From TrEMBL:
InterPro entries: AAA+_ATPase, ABC_transporter-like_ATP-bd, ABC_transporter-like_CS, ABC_transporter_ATP-binding, DrrA, DrrA1/2-like_C, P-loop_NTPase. PANTHER family: ABC TRANSPORTER ATP-BINDING PROTEIN (PTHR42711), DOXORUBICIN RESISTANCE ATP-BINDING PROTEIN DRRA (PTHR42711:SF19). Gene3D superfamilies: P-loop containing nucleotide triphosphate hydrolases. The keyword Transport applies. Belongs to the ABC transporter superfamily. Drug exporter-1 (DrugE1) (TC 3.A.1.105) family. SMART domains: AAA. One of its GO terms (molecular function) is ATP binding. Residues 315-338 are annotated as: Disordered. NCBIfam families: drrA. This is ATP-binding cassette domain-containing protein. It comes from the Bacteria. Keywords: Antibiotic resistance, ATP-binding, Cell membrane, Membrane, Nucleotide-binding, Translocase, Transport. Its main location: membrane.
Amino acid sequence: MITARGLVQTFTTRAGKEKKEVRAVDGVDLDVAEGEVVGFLGPNGAGKTTTLRMLTTLLRPTSGTATVAGYDVVRESQQVRRSIGYVSQAGGVSTSARAGEEVMDHGMLYGLSRQQVETRGRELFAQLQLDGLWERMPKNMSGGQKRRLDIVMGLIHDPTLVFLDEPTTGLDPQARANLWEHIARLRSDRGATVFLTTHYLDEADALSDRIVIIDQGRIVASDTSDNLKAQVSGDLVSLEVAPDHVGLAAQRLGAVADAVETDGLKVHGRVPRAGRVVPTLLRELEGAGVALESIEVRRPTLDDVFLTLTGRSLRDAETETTGPSGNAAEPETEGASA
Ligand SMILES: Nc1ncnc2c1ncn2[C@@H]1O[C@H](COP(=O)(O)OP(=O)(O)OP(=O)(O)O)[C@@H](O)[C@H]1O
């Protein structure tokens, strides 16, 4: 459904008088099969949206090639656009018209008749729990309702391939969980292929058959969540001990664990299989007279995967990219649009 080879996108940015070239996407290869749900995960500024904009024909690649739904993104951009649904990060809904009118206009742009759009639009409103909101102005909807309306717009022409750019950013936990259900149903009920970007680890984990991780414009991993986690060396064991016992606890943990670190009264280390190691460790600690306040065992997370692959945690990577103010470099040029 999606194939990309060596996709590159460079932008020119200006900081004061100085011009700087940003290689936002730096040689991306991708293969997404029909019916797959792929989570495209990476910190802020990693190149997720830029990749998505190239795949959806909104941005012409600086170099490299891509086919989407069997069509070349540069030479056959119209066919690509007709074959896909795209829900952008900002959402495509204007605030001045009623929700139903927006949907009608949008569907008719795809060449559907008024009757076809209305039937399909109302069906999607019911499926996405927007019943009764056809006449409502989007500005008077909740964040979750607005985001679901964006998704209606992306699905109005019944695409079999759907691109979602950070579908749940800014939503409260309940609205996120609700949207996750709808996204999961795109595949289970409609057999759609879904390519979604996110910087939420739990979202990538919950929704995706396969996770592709991008960092600084390059793909650093692509596999199922379980396989990625299996690459991380072991479960994290964290001990909290009385003030005088930190050194002793670190020594005992060090006998069975790798990468032992202390942090205040806490001692952390990685063990291959916590279930096997922890009972013995507890006996050892007791035997050594260590006053244990708490013990916590955590299975590897996708953040551990990112850390293992890049040497940085996702959160640190985000701070690096966006700086303390949270603003990325001021964009100047847009690259040539297709
Ligand atoms: N139009 C533009 N002009 C200049 N630089 C840009 C432009 N668009 C993106 N960039 C830069 O390219 C890099 C990748 O940005 P992109 O938006 O693709 O990242 P992202 O992974 O989608 O991030 P986020 O999670 O914050 O949306 C960043 O350094 C960004 O500042």
